[in-house]
TrEMBL record:
Compartment annotation: Membrane
Topology within the bilayer: Multi-pass membrane protein
Domain G-protein coupled receptors family 1 profile, first and last residues per copy: 47-298
Source organism of this protein record: Huso huso
Protein name as annotated: Olfactory receptor 52K1-like
Keywords (A to Z) from UniProt: Membrane, Olfaction, Sensory transduction, Transducer, Transmembrane, Transmembrane helix
Main location: membrane
Record InterPro entries: GPCR_Rhodpsn, GPCR_Rhodpsn_7TM, Olfact_rcpt, OR51/52/56-like
PROSITE patterns noted in UniProt: G_PROTEIN_RECEP_F1_2
């Protein structure tokens, strides 16, 4: 049976109940990397909490589009909260021991919200598709309830998928090395330490990664093909420009998320980066950067949202009672 707190014999004559996270030990000035990641985390919190606050305070933004935007903001916050804060004691103060329970818990939440990031972009693509392809029926097709159900189904499905993979890894016997060569308890670096046949775990991890990355990406690609075909049928050049501008913000989000991750994996698979620690640093930054940039892109490129943010900022400067008065 699966146990998230196993204690296995480590082959050295003693019992251990956890792992030791080792990374960046060959990097010069690794504390600067932690400083950069800490700044990324602070900006992630400030940006995404601002988006959530502005949407919450403005009833005019309580629609399917901004429900999807808020979903992405929540995922962004939790994603970086799972990865970055725990790195400070590990790599600054060398408190690198982590219990089995904490390790597999972190593994679950890190991969869970990483997967949700990808699917959240697909939901935003779906919203744009309905808005452009069925502009007159948008409010009846894509209701608040319907988008909420879609998001709930995605969260539940990804939960089951990640729970299975993590539970399978937690049930393996870890009787040799307990040193995890990563910045945190990633699935791959951990299950590879098991003293058992890990062929199924490896195949599962590969399949899951391909599905999570390229499944939503393929859906997004298809939606844009349909959107381009639909927009070409619009007679007015001004309307065509407006439709493409509507998709531009989402396209930036997609590129911001997928390009760094894909490039990092290409660098790793082609062994263009020889140092494992440098590769881990590149991968960590590529994963944590999109959650910081997402609210910035949406705030700057979405006129409706940027106006609300400027209005809120202006009122905060003039009245301490603003939060009670802000409305659409």
């Amino acid at each position: 049976s699966t146990n998230f707190t196993p204690a296995f014999y480590n082959g050295t004559g003693s019992l251990t109940t956890g792992f030791y996270i080792i990374a960046f030990d060959t990097l010069d000035n690794k504390n600067y990397l932690i400083l950069v990641l800490s700044l990324i985390y602070i900006c992630t919190l400030l940006g995404n909490l601002t988006v959530l606050l502005v949407v919450f305070l403005n009833p005019s933004l309580h629609n399917p589009k901004y429900i999807s935007v808020c979903n992405l903001a929540v995922v962004d916050i939790i994603m970086n909260s799972v990865i970055i804060p725990q790195m400070v004691p590990v790599f600054v103060f060398n408190w690198n021991f982590i219990s089995f329970q904490a390790c597999f818990t972190q593994m679950f939440f890190m991969h869970y919200f990483g997967d949700l990031e990808s699917f959240s972009l697909a939901v935003l693509a779906y919203d744009r598709l309905i808005a452009i392809y069925f502009p007159l029926r948008y409010s009846t097709i894509n209701t608040n309830m319907r988008i909420s159900v879609i998001l709930a189904v995605i969260w539940a499905a990804v939960f089951c998928m990640e729970m299975y993979a993590v539970a399978l890894a937690a049930s393996l016997p870890y009787c040799a090395s307990r040193i995890v060569r990563s910045c945190c308890c990633e699935h791959g670096p951990v299950y590879k330490l098991a003293c058992a046949d890990i062929t199924f775990n490896r195949n599962l991890a590969t399949t899951k990664t391909l599905f999570v990355l390229f499944g939503p990406l393929s859906f997004i690609f298809i939606t844009y093909i349909i959107i381009v075909i639909a927009v070409q049928k619009i007679a007015s050049a001004k309307q065509r420009k407006k439709a493409f501008n509507t998709c531009f913000t989402h396209l930036l989000l997609v590129l911001t998320y997928y390009l760094p991750v894909i490039l990092a994996y290409i660098l790793g698979n082609l062994r263009l980066v020889r140092s494992p620690d440098l590769f881990t640093a590149i991968l960590t930054v590529s994963v944590t950067l999109p959650p910081m940039l997402n609210p910035v892109i949406y705030s700057l490129k979405t006129e409706e949202l940027s106006e609300k943010i400027m209005k809120l900022a202006g009122r905060l400067k003039t009245s301490p009672e603003t939060l009670k008065k802000v409305s659409s």
